[in-house]
Amino acid sequence: MTSHSQTTAVPEELESLWQNIARIRIGMFTAIGADGAFASRPMMTCEIDPTGTLWFFVADDGALARSVSRDARVSVTYTDPDDGWFASVSGTAQIVHDDAMARALWEPALSAWFHGGFADPQLGLLRVAVHHAEYWKSSGKVGQLFAFAKAALLQTPPHHIAEHHTIDL
Questions:
Q1: 20-50 residue pLDDT tens
Q2: How confident is the model over 100-137, as pLDDT tens digits?
Q3: Which of 9, 35, 99, 156 sits at a 20 to 30 Å CA gap from 50?
Q4: Mean pLDDT, to the nearest integer, of 155-162?
Q5: Cα torsion for 104, 99, 42, 31, to the nearest 10°?
Q6: Separation CA 76–CA 26 (nearest Å)
Q7: Sign of CA dihedral 65, 31, 73, 128
Q8: What residue spans define the domains of the chain?
Q9: C-alpha–C-alpha distance, residues 9 and 134, integer Å
Q10: What is the distance between the alpha carbons of residues 52 and 128, in angstroms, rounded to a whole number?
């Protein structure tokens, strides 16, 4: 596995990260629950600010809102196994009430969770300031199968399966 570590964000790596998150959209959002255990749920990313902020809609009276009110540390993982792309971002979350932003980010499909639309009284925005991100990019399933087959044939661990990038914002 090739690794690239950065102490500051490299524009090309950040652009690749944001583009892939925007393409995948659904991530597993993990926060620390009331019992101190990690609690994860799928969430749709509604907006990505290129400076390192992710936006989600959340019920401001729900378990996730209560969790981030107690402990703002969160992570979100995004995967596209078919493309061989995997990412984990971590940062701090905050509930935000901004009617103009809610209106701008609103999508009709969200009505399944928020029956009152962007004017729903329980609607909140969840802002995640990303502080750290890691992503892996492989050559996809065919490339991985070839690397595994070669490793099995040579009886050595597979090498160079994926490029690993670490970004601190």
A1: 999 999 999 999 999 999 999 999 999 999 8
A2: 999 999 999 999 999 998 888 999 999 999 999 999 99
A3: 99
A4: 70
A5: 140
A6: 9
A7: negative
A8: 2-137+164-168
A9: 11
A10: 8
Q: Is the pLDDT of residue 161 over 50?
A: yes
- Element housing 150 (H / E): helix 140-154
Would you say 16 and 22 are in contact if contact means Cβ atoms under 8 Å apart? Answer: no
Residue type, 62: G
List the beta bridge partners of residue 137. Answer: 85, 163
**Dihedral sign from CA coordinates of 20, 21, 25, 29:** positive
Helix (H) or strand (E) run with residue 127 in it:
strand 123-138
Candidates 32, 29, 33; CA nearest to 46 is 29
Residues in CB range of 155: below 8 A, 6 or more apart: none
pTM: 0.84
Contacts with 135 (C-beta within 8 Å, 6 or more apart), sequence order: 16, 17, 20, 85, 86, 87, 88, 164, 165, 167
Tell the CATH topology of 2-137+164-168. Pnp Oxidase; Chain A (2.30.110)
